[in-house]
Write a structure and sequence with these properties.
two-stranded antiparallel sheet, MerR-type_HTH_dom, Tscrpt_reg_MerR_DNA-bd, DNA-binding, 136 residues, mainly alpha, single chain, Helix-turn-helix domain-containing protein, elongated, repressor
Length: 136
């Protein structure tokens, strides 16, 4: 007999909120499950495996469109994994860009902190730096 799961069980097993499971169904990442006689969703092992795949890809920072691509490619087992490699390399490049941006942001904030004279808010260089610059 095949193991089945309620949406709550599926969520607990994959550490996914029920609302997120429903969302993945709505956007087509997770196939809609059949319904029981009582009109409850009935998930099986394939749903569990697919949701686990989605969750892991999301943990690794893949956006939903790339998760969709990875899911499509995972079903084509005889195909070369070159396209997967390219997708992952693009993701790594994006992560490296974001790391650089965060390091730049950190450096800018550290410079602001270094200028702090611990005076009053009216003289605060950090607050002054955050004020919009009006041109005109």
């Amino acid at each position: 007999m095949m193991q089945t799961y309620t949406i709550g069980q599926l969520g607990r097993l994959t550490d996914t909120k029920v609302e997120t499971v429903r969302y993945y169904e709505r956007i087509g990442l997770l196939p809609h499950p059949p319904r029981s006689a009582g009109n409850y969703r009935v998930y099986d092992g394939a749903h569990l495996a697919r949701l686990g795949f989605i969750r892991r890809a999301r943990e690794l920072g893949f956006p939903l469109d790339q998760v969709r691509e990875l899911l499509e490619m995972s079903g084509q087992e005889a195909r070369s994994c070159e396209q997967v490699d390219e997708l992952v390399q693009a993701h790594v490049t994006d992560i490296e860009r974001r790391i650089h941006d965060l390091q730049t942001l950190r450096q800018e904030l550290m410079q602001l902190l270094a200028q702090c004279q611990h005076g009053k808010i009216a003289e605060c260089l950090i607050i002054e730096a955050l004020q919009p610059r009006v041109t005109g």
